Amino acid sequence: MADYVDKNNNSALETSNTISATQPNFAKPFLDVSKIEVFTGQNFRHWQEHVSTLLDMYEVAFALTNSKSDPSTTAKQIDDWIHVNKVCHHTLLSALSNDLFDVYASYKEAKDIWDSFILKYTAKTSSYKGL
Questions:
Q1: What is the pLDDT of residues 65-93, one digit of tens each?
Q2: Distance CA 93, CA 1 (A)
Q3: Under DSSP, is residue 50 helix (H, G, I), strand (E, B) or coil?
Q4: pLDDT tens across 35-50, in order?
Q5: Which long-range contacts (CB under 8 A, 24 or more apart) does 24-29 make?
Q6: How far is residue 30's CA from residue 33's CA, in Å, rounded to a whole number?
Q7: Residue 76 burial (CB < 10 Å; 0-12/13-18/19+)?
Q8: Of 96, 105, 112, 131, which one has the greatest count of Cβ atoms within 10 A?
Q9: Which DSSP letter does residue 97 get?
């Protein structure tokens, strides 16, 4: 009887392993945007560090510095970039106040939003330090 139970348990384990191997395996869960403080135009450096760290942790931060229009990229790299840009674009827009969302929602690339933030908010910070 014990042999019969062991055989059944082993076959059940083998079956469950076979089933789980065919199911999609998502390496990382979706970004939890609720953990990012809403950016209102204040404390940019703090917000920037928080967002870039989160995006880097999910290995998508390169969309903040790389544009799609690099002529040496392969079709696979373009597809990867499109996905990563969507994740970064959504994350950035989701972490903005309504007023800033209205300004940046028309941007198509996360890099353009990020570059615009850096230009606007680091220049603002630098000019205050010079006073």
A1: 988 877 787 888 889 999 999 999 999 99
A2: 62
A3: helix
A4: 789 999 999 999 999 9
A5: 28/58, 28/59
A6: 9
A7: exposed
A8: 96
A9: -
